[in-house]
Design brief:
The chain is mainly beta. The model has no long low-confidence stretch (mean pLDDT 89).
Length: 125
């Protein structure tokens, strides 16, 4: 019984002291249009309703499915290294299952597109 208690206390300590370590990812951007989403571009994977006249205002990022374990829906991430789109984003969408270790930043159609292979994301909230 003492060993089990020791293990539980130790595990709890490790979890509570876990630092939010940045994750290196490849970042791209996407628009809320059927060609780049699904047949319902007005909603994210979490059914968040987008303002299609200005989707960027929501500060939404889609993550590849492997990243959703560490950064689940509803969490916020700090994105660094995009040269223009750095900042805090809400995890509300999912990328196609063929992608691994990637994020996609939702932008307006009139904004600059880009692809950045050396971006870091860190849990913000």
């Amino acid at each position: 019984m003492n060993i089990l208690k020791f293990l539980i206390v130790g595990f709890t300590f490790l979890l509570s002291n876990k630092k939010d370590v940045p994750t290196k990812v490849h970042a791209t951007v996407y628009n809320a249009v059927p060609e780049q989403t699904n047949s319902d571009p007005g909603h994210t994977a979490t059914m968040f309703e987008l303002d299609l006249s200005n989707p960027y205002k929501h500060r939404i990022v889609a993550l590849s499915r492997d990243l959703l374990i560490e950064y689940p829906y509803g969490s916020q991430v700090l994105v660094k290294g995009t040269k223009g789109y750095d900042g805090i984003y809400n995890v509300e969408d999912t990328m196609n299952k063929r992608y691994k270790n990637r994020i996609d930043i939702l932008i307006n159609e009139d904004m600059q597109i880009g692809s950045w292979p050396d971006v870091t994301i860190t849990k913000y909230k």
